[in-house]
Amino acid sequence: MNTPLTQGSWSPTKTYHFGGENLRYFRLDSFAGPIELIGWDKEEIHIEIFVTIRRWSTVFLIEEPLAEWEWDEETVSISQADNTLHVRSRPNYRSLTNWLNFPKVSFRVYLPTNISTQVYNSFGGDIFLKSLKGRHQFNTMGGHIKLDNVEGELKGRTTGGNIHFLSCDAKADVSTFGGNIKIEQCKGEIKVSTKGGNIHIRHCEAKIYTDTWGGNIKASHCKGDLKCYTSGGNIAFEEIQGNIGASTKGGNMRVSIKAIDEYLWLEANSGNINIDLPLQQGLQLNVKGSRVKMPFLPNFNGVKKNRYINGQLNGGGANVTLKTRGGVIAIKPYEAEASSRATEAETTYTENEVREEDAPIPFKNRFWTTVLPFMYSFFVMALFVYGFSSVFYFSLELMKTDSPENAQNTALFLLNITSSVGCFVAVNVFIKKVERKYHSDWKKYLILIIMTVGFVRLAHFLQWIIYLYLPDNELFWVHYWRMLDYNVWNTYSDRNSLFFASIPLFAVSLYFYFWQKSRHFTRKISEQEYQLLNLEKLKTKAQLNALEARINPHFLYNSLNSIAGLVHQDPDKAEEMTIQLSKLFRHTTGRNEGHYHLIAEELEVVRSYLAIEQMRFGNRLSFSIKVAPELLDFKIPRFLLQPLVENAIKHGISNLLKNGEIEIIIEDQTDTIQFRIHDNGPAFKEDISGGYGLRSIRDKLNLIYGQKASLQVQNNAYKMVIISIPKQHEWVELK
Q1: Predicted model pTM
Q2: What CATH superfamily is the domain 571-726?
Q3: Distance, C-alpha 275 to centroid of its chain
Q4: CA dihedral sign of residues 411, 417, 423, 425
Q5: Cβ atoms of residues 619 and 654 within 8 Å
Q6: CA–CA distance, 613 with 632 (Å, rounded to integer)
Q7: Could you say which DSSP state residue 629 is in?
Q8: Helix 571-588 and helix 599-617: axis angle, to 10°?
Q9: CB contact at 8 A, 62 and 116
Q10: How far, CA to CA in Å, does 62 sit from each of 31, 53, 54, 57?
Q11: Lowest-pLDDT range, 185-199, 211-225, 383-397, 496-510?
């Protein structure tokens, strides 16, 4: 973002310093000129003000800095109230110099990094935020927005300028009316929208939500959640990993997916979908198109037809939904080398430029991607130009009081305004009060047309009342009533009145049609997200059930072996062990199907198991359990500790001749709960992490907590397995 502030040759016209110890908010209202807010490690605020003018003597072509001796104190006002510093700039129009020289005020402000800001730029200056934290709001009428290394909460808007995120870690909601958006090396949760510009995302690890009315969307080398929508542009993804949802209303998709976490959902209304999938991963495929191409996969189990595919790949896993109504879906295996070669071909560009790669992506069906959008844009532009030209023309004609057509034009203008008010009231009342009561579309349109006729006639009736009290000696009312005289439609000269009466009905029907389409798409997106959440729950439940199903027989097998070993040596102990085993399985079976229980319940399972094994090993095994009482009521996943205790006995205590010890310690670590399982047996083997007990626990922690939990193996003199889980967790039972 090039501004006069970055040129380096201009000195500030005026500078101010303020102590920032007690300040928490900074607000800046500017009428023109770029604004830079930069965070630094000092507890003070340093404001540099740059004032430039365009002199009448240079025909306003050359922008010059204003010297300090020319400074007008009324140009900028600064006030402090409580913990807020408010800076406001506005031209002093009482000065004749300001009227002639067009002054512009720019700001560079150095702030403490944690201060929150509000920036409003009335007439199109750029806004630049760098190295700041906290909450930030910004608004500019047409300038560019650049955010560099900003953290915290961001909310802003520009009317037409470009937006550039760079190395930000924030929760952001930023929009532009038609500019391009670029997001690089960012984290957090970012939501952006543009009414027609292109969106480019790369090297991000974040939750990103994008929306553009007709621009292209491109993302490369990203991880996390990525949800994109464009009403007519193309979508291109390269080296994407995580959860992906994307939709286009007429463009094509070229997608390369490295790995899928829970779901991948792509939908093209009529375009093609070319996708590289990680076919070595377990996937649940649901693919529909006019034609589907996929290579032969030996591990696929399901239905594969010419137009749809439905089934499991490699035993199932992440849900993959690909849909297009009129296009072709081509699936190929993901190849890292080919994707990296494609990425190396990228070239850098400035934020004000759009690369050739961001232009429409070449596909076979050029009509849908090039010709049709061109025709559509031409039609819309012609309609707007014609409409605005007509309004401007009639407005000029109304000013010509001596024109013979003035009365008729005035009547037409008045008729349009009155009909517009009636249409506005009719369509809003219908949508808010009536529409939901009917399911059939033809009934909805019929009732809407009847309501429109009623409200428009009511508006004309109110106009008639005004006519009674404000007659104009028949200058234009005669034309007004003549255009509304429905009895003369059969005469050739007045057939235009039918045209004027039909336009409101056509307008409300068209508006309602697009309103329906917009609501239908929003509802469809919500339903898709709901289905994906359900699929995610079902998948997680199935995987947890599989883990527990493998643990229970494994434990039962070892326990029965122990009982078999005692039957001949000590029948009484064998009987007591059988009773303990029955008691243990009362904890693990016959209960609800929840996957979580209290720490106290988990320790009951562990104690029963250790009691059984203690009967088997005798004085070779002793154990102790230390837990803070306040932790007993916390929920944890079922069978979290028992497999680890089982491993400690199988691989540790069983190799000792005497004095085997198992110690279980559960501690509160502020934000986490830590579980430590120690035994004094031999050191762990090198491949201990690949054993089933640890592997199943890792899988379970990853399914439930993601990256928030950890499992560590400490293989030294005091060997132990350490588990840390977050204390605060949104528990959702999978039913």
Answers
A1: 0.51
A2: Histidine kinase-like ATPase, C-terminal domain (3.30.565.10)
A3: 22
A4: negative
A5: no
A6: 24
A7: G
A8: 160
A9: no
A10: 20, 8, 6, 10
A11: 383-397
